[in-house]
Design goal:
mainly beta, Immunoglobulin-like, five-stranded antiparallel β-sheet, four-stranded antiparallel β-sheet, 1 helix, Glyco_hydro_13_N
């Protein structure tokens, strides 16, 4: 799930990335990677919630598009079905989610 909250005082959007327990299965770690953190799998970890879901909120500049994916346990890459759209990842037939802010 993706939630966008645009700030009135700054050209920033607070974006909350979250994955339900059912989608992460038995993963112990979940991170979100993308253009905004140079695809660094350790830069933006999602925190496990009491419900078993994982979530993190980051600030992104408005009027931009960002490619992103989630990484489970440092090795399994998955997409968020709620991405604004999908674009080729230039790795085989893989696709990245795209956020329009």
């Amino acid at each position: 799930m993706i939630e966008k909250k645009f700030l009135k005082s700054k050209p920033i959007c607070k974006v909350k990335f979250s994955l339900p327990k059912s989608q992460v299965q038995a993963a112990k770690t979940v991170t979100v990677v993308g253009d905004f953190n140079n695809w660094d799998i350790s830069a933006t970890p999602l925190k496990k919630q009491k419900t078993g879901n994982f979530a993190a909120t980051i600030d992104l500049d408005i009027h931009k598009e960002y490619q992103f994916r989630y990484v489970l346990d440092g090795k399994e890459w998955i997409n968020d079905e709620e991405a604004d759209r999908f674009v080729p990842a230039n790795i085989g037939s893989e696709q990245n989610g795209l956020l329009s802010i």
